[in-house]
Amino acid sequence: MNAVPKLSYGPLPLPTRWLLSPLAGYTNLPFRRVVRALGGLGLATTDLVNSRALVEGSEKTLELTATCPEDTPLAVQIFGAEPKYLCEAARRLEGAGHASVDINMGCPVGKVTKTGSGASLMCRREETIELVEAVVRSVSIPVTVKMRLGWDDQNITAPAFARAFEEVGVAAVAIHGRTRAQGFSGQVNRDGIRQVVEAVRKIPVIGNGDVLSVADAEVMLRETGCAGVSIGRGALANPWIFRQLHQWEQTGRSDPPGNFDDRLGLLRQQFGYVIELRGADRAVSFFRKMAHWYLKAMRVAPHLRHKTQSARNVDEFFAVLAEIEERGPAVGSRTDQPEMTVAVPSGPNAHW
Ligand SMILES: Cc1cc2nc3c(=O)[nH]c(=O)nc-3n(C[C@H](O)[C@H](O)[C@H](O)COP(=O)(O)O)c2cc1C
Predict the structure, then answer these.
(1) Per-residue pLDDT for 311 more than 50?
(2) N or C: which end of the chain has fewer CB within 10 A?
(3) Does the structural domain 260-327 have CATH classification 3.40.50?
(4) Is 120's C-beta closer than 6 angstroms to any atom of ligand 1?
(5) pLDDT tens digit string along 157-189?
(6) Bigger pLDDT: 261 or 335?
(7) Cβ(45) to ligand 1 under 6 A?
(8) Where does residue 209 fall: left (phi above 0), alpha (psi -120 to 50 degrees), or beta otherwise?
(9) Which atom, in ligand 1's list, is nearest to the CA of 188?
C-alpha cells in the first residue's frame, strides 16, 4: 500500500485523518472517551460553545469544554458574532491548554443564525473575514472554521471564504457538503466540497457529510480530494468507524464494527463516564438521548427502550440494561451487525 498521507492543523500533527464532527448533545467527553479508546480517531471537536457564555464563565459552558488527558487532540468549537467575545474565548481556551479552536459557521438553527452567528456568518463577507482574522491573531494555537457550502444554492460562498480564511491564517476548514437551506435533506454535494479543495492553496480541507462506512469515506476522499474526513452521525451509529478507517488505510481491510454485546459494553462504559462527569444524580437525564441512539442501533425492543427513557436513577437504569442484555435484540441475533442507518433530526432548519 502507498504511504498514508499525514494531516496536521498548522503545527499540530493529527494521528489520523479521520475526525469526529461536533454533534451538540452527543459528542461530549464521555462519548469522546469511548470513541478514543476504540482507536483510529485523529481529532475530536466539542459541541458548539457560546463564546460569550464561555467568557462570562457559565457553568454549562465549563461542562462543554471539560476534557481529560486521553481526550486529545481536541478542538473546542465556539460560536458568536461579536469579535470581542470570540477572541477572548479563544484566548481563554488557549490559556486553559486546549490544542485548537474551531469557529462555527455552519449551524442552521434559527436561535443561532438570528444572532448573526453560525451559518449566517456566511452571508457577510468582509465582516466575517475580519472576525476570523481577529480570532487567528488572538492566539498561537491553530484556528479552524467549520462551514456549510453556503446559505442556499444561489449563494455558494464556501470556496471564496476558504481561500480568504487561508490568507488570514486559518489552519484548516471543514465543509459539510450542504447549504444552510438544505438542512439535512438531499444528498451531500461532494462536487461542492471539491470546489473548496480547489479554492485553497495548501491548507487541509476536511470533507463532511453522510459518511457511514469505509466505502463512503473512500468516495469522499476520491471525489473531493479532501485531506481528511469528518464523521458525525455515522460515529453515533458505529463508534468503531474510526478504527475501521485506520485499519483500512493501513492494511486495506478492516474488522467489522461491534455487535450487540460489544455495544452494550460501550453503552455501560460511556454511562460510567457520564456518572464521573455529572455525578449520579444528573447522569440518567443527561444520558437519555444517547442511550436512545445506542439502543435503536442495537434493535432493542421498543418497550425496553422506553424503560431506559423512564428510568429515574442510576440503579433503575442499570436494571433495565441487565434486562436488555438478557433479552438481546428484538430482530436478528446478538452477533448480527447493528442498524447503521441513522435517523436524521427532523425539519430542514429548525433542528440540526
Ligand atoms: C444532533 C446534531 C448536532 C450537531 N451539532 C453541531 C455542532 O455543535 N457544531 C457543528 O459545527 N455542527 C453540528 N452538527 C453538524 C455535524 O457536525 C455535521 O456537519 C453534519 O451532521 C453532517 O455530517 P454527518 O453526516 O457525518 O453527520 C450537528 C449535527 C447533528 C445531527
Answers:
(1) yes
(2) N
(3) no
(4) no
(5) 999 999 999 999 999 999 999 998 888 888 999
(6) 261
(7) no
(8) left
(9) 25
Q: How confident is the model at residue 1 (pLDDT cuts 50, 70, 90)?
A: low
Question: What would the DSSP string read from start to end of 115-178?
Answer: TT-GGGGGG-HHHHHHHHHHHHHH-SS-EEEEEEEESSTT---HHHHHHHHHHTT--EEEEEEE
For the chain, helix, strand, coil in percent to 5 are 45, 15, 40
Predicted pLDDT of residue 87: 98
**CB-ligand 1 contact for 47 (6 Å cutoff):** yes
Domain boundaries, the chain: 13-251, 260-327
Whole-Å CA distances, 337 to 120, 256, 261, 344 = 40, 8, 11, 20
Decide if 107 is catalytic.
yes
CB 23 within 8 A of CB 236: yes
Convert the pLDDT of each residue in 231-277 to its tens digit.
Answer: 999 998 899 999 999 999 999 999 999 999 999 999 999 999 999 99
For residue 325, the CA-to-ligand 1 centroid distance in Å is 30
Could you give the maximum distance between any two Cα atoms of the chain, in Å? 59
Pocket of ligand 1 contains residue 352 by CB under 6 Å = yes
Task: Evaluate: CB of 50 within 6 angstroms of ligand 1.
Answer: no
Cα–chain-centroid distance for residue 186?
20
**Is 347 a residue whose pLDDT tops 80?**
no
**pLDDT of the residue at 345:** 56
Pick from 19, 21, 146, 190 the residue to mutate for probing ligand 1's pocket: most ligand atoms within 8 Å of its CB: 21
The protein residue with its alpha carbon nearest to ligand 1, atom 14, reads 23
For the Cβ of 146 lying below 6 angstroms from any atom of ligand 1, the answer is yes
User: Across-strand partners of 147?
Assistant: 105, 175
Closest Cα to atom 21 of ligand 1: 232
Residue of minimum CA distance from atom 28 in ligand 1: 23
Residue the block writes with cell 488570514: 168
What cell does 303 get? 418497550
pTM of the model: 0.95
